[in-house]
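#onboarding

Welcome to the new folks! Below is a worked example of what a typical request in this channel looks like: someone posts a single protein sequence, and someone else replies with the predicted structure as tokens. Don't worry about understanding the tokens yet, we'll cover that in week two.

Example request:
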Amino acid sequence: MIIRAFLVLLPMAACIVVAQQPAPQGSQPSAGPSVPIELPEYVVTGKDRVDIPGATKSDPMRPPVLGKARLDTLNSLEKLSPPILAPASLPVPRRTMAFLPGFLQAEFGQYGTPDVVAGYSLEASGYRIDAQANLETSAGHTTNASYTKAGLRALSTYVAPDKFIFFGGSTTEVDVSARTSSYRFFAVPDAAERTVTSLRAGLGVDGTYDGFDYTAQTGYVATATTLADRSARDGDLFGTVTAQNRWRLFDVGGRISMNLRSFNGNAYPAAELVGFGRYADERYRLLVQAGFQSVTSTAAVGRGGIVVAGTADVFLSHDVTINASLRTGLRPVGFADLLQENPYVHDSVLIDAALDVIDVGGMVTYHPSVRLAASAGLRLAQTDRTPIWVDASAGAFALTYAATTRVEVPVEVRWIAGSRDIIVADARLVSATVADQKNLPYAASRASIRYERLWTEALRSTLAAMYVGERFADLANTISLTGYVDVRVRVDYDVTPTLAVQVRAHNLLASEIILWNGYRERGVFVSGGVTWRF
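Example response:
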């Protein structure tokens, strides 16, 4: 105890002695008695403190093991899905072959029916020229049903170099064709022979200038028919110019078109001036058109009016699209159009323009994948001066005009059933009446289906069936034409890359097919031939 007290008092005495010694010469005066004196902790408390790094305060320990409950709080119960694999490309049936500039197809069928088609493509001095010729003749399936058809067409395409100021980069097409056919009005015993000759020369330009996209077409079509001691001539000098530009979010433009037609010396021109606007984004696509029309009939009756038309596409989702259309206005037609629809049209027929009072329709399309697309819709039309085919003398057909109401339900399906199979089907249910509630002649419901099969790379087949329902052939609804089913099949086989053989058959069920009153089409028809590509 005495020693411990000595150790405590000895430092204190040393501090007192030091404090009483005089300050060194030249040093500052010492602080006043109010300044506290800091003493080491062990002097005051008898204990000392040593700073030791934290890492050495305790021995290293193994971390505790985490239990299942603790691990569940750290790991989410909802695990992330593995990344989706890139979709494999769909196997698409081969429908193309190496390009060869020329081909020759020759077939021979029943009733002594040879059919030859040849074509060739070439390029020279920046021009691409595609030419084609055809010849078909037959002894006919019944008395006076023989016919001959021949044609020649050449299409020239030229892309102008950029050095041209206005036409630089534009595409110019020149289309020249000549066709002739000879057949008889075999619906009557003393069938007269008709010869039809058509000549066409057209020029089209498609390009861009100073921000404007433009298209222009002009040409002349001459059609002549000769029947016994009578003849008819129709001429059509036509021209159309369309231009459009981008304005904010819209494409706006205008179109002017004119047909200077003459039939048997009677002029029946048609002209149209229309402005339009177009808008499209990820969900909507809209097109609106409005303008003025002027049409004259072959009876020198002039008609003018306003045309309004529009279409709208609404993309409801990735799988569903809705389409709607609306139109009102005149619908002119030419003699060449009538002759193409009905080869037995009378050569002194009255030609006038129909007036669509209202023509509105809608369609819903379901397209969940590139393999499947199905559509269904509804169309309602009220038309004045609808052209109606009626029987005329000597097996010919004339036109009369009346107000009609038409209701249609269209359905379409396209399905790629597998890597080698394609199915396309469509149907159109039709209900059409004239003003007195009689059925519209030659208006019938229709349906068709086509199945294409790629058996091997060299063997292909197509099976098709078409149904046409019952319809009337006169305004009084006293002449009825029965419905029919036309089943057709075609098989193609590539013997070599340049040589193929084909066989086709029509009307396999031997149905009674009557397209026009009195004109019964041929029954079963089988034809076969070869195609050579060079």
